[in-house]
Amino acid sequence: MRLFFALELPGNLALKIADWRQRQLPVLGRPVPPANFHITLAFLGEMREPQLEQLCAQTDELLERRTFTSAEIHLDQVGYWPRPGIYWLGPQRWPETLDELAGALSTRGNAVGARRKRGDFRPHLTLFRGCEEAPPAPTAGCSFGLPYRGFSLMESRNGRQGVSYNSIARWNFSSLNGC
């Protein structure tokens, strides 16, 4: 299983962002389907079932020892990474607690055998993949409020229709209910 931790978007917010993207930006790459919109907290890579069980137990333990609170981030800037051709939407300001959570989740993934290093962490939502050049700036600014009350463990699956992301476990900050 190819896994990652992420903040999921409510369906209505994903549709608002997709509508804004369609109205404001030309298609210069492959648009990411709204159902796949998320903000990755920690990419884990390939993991097996025994590792998954350990990961869930360690994530439960993290949330038993550390308190994280619900809040909202604002997706209010766009950017372009020439390599790998990603055009993205993200927050200008990222809460320190989410940065700490992302680091802790990455550490737990590594502890159970994930082979990914954290590297530079830049929270973002991918709008387009495979862009050969930066799209022109949107004519209207953007500011989308993303409420978060927890996070999910997601599985990435390749299929005939392309990649899809499925939540296989979820943790709310107010209660434990992961794997």
UniProtKB/TrEMBL annotation:
Motif HXTX 2 positions after renumbering to this chain: 124-127
Keywords per UniProt: Hydrolase
EC number: 3.1.4.58
Record InterPro entries: Cyclic_Pdiesterase (IPR009097), Phosphoesterase_HXTX (IPR014051), RNA_CPDase (IPR004175)
GO terms, molecular function: 2',3'-cyclic-nucleotide 3'-phosphodiesterase activity; RNA 2',3'-cyclic 3'-phosphodiesterase activity
Catalytic residues (UniProt): 38 (proton donor), 124 (proton acceptor)
Statement: the UniProt record of this protein carries the keyword RNA-binding: no
Database matches in Pfam families: LigT_PEase
Protein name: RNA 2',3'-cyclic phosphodiesterase
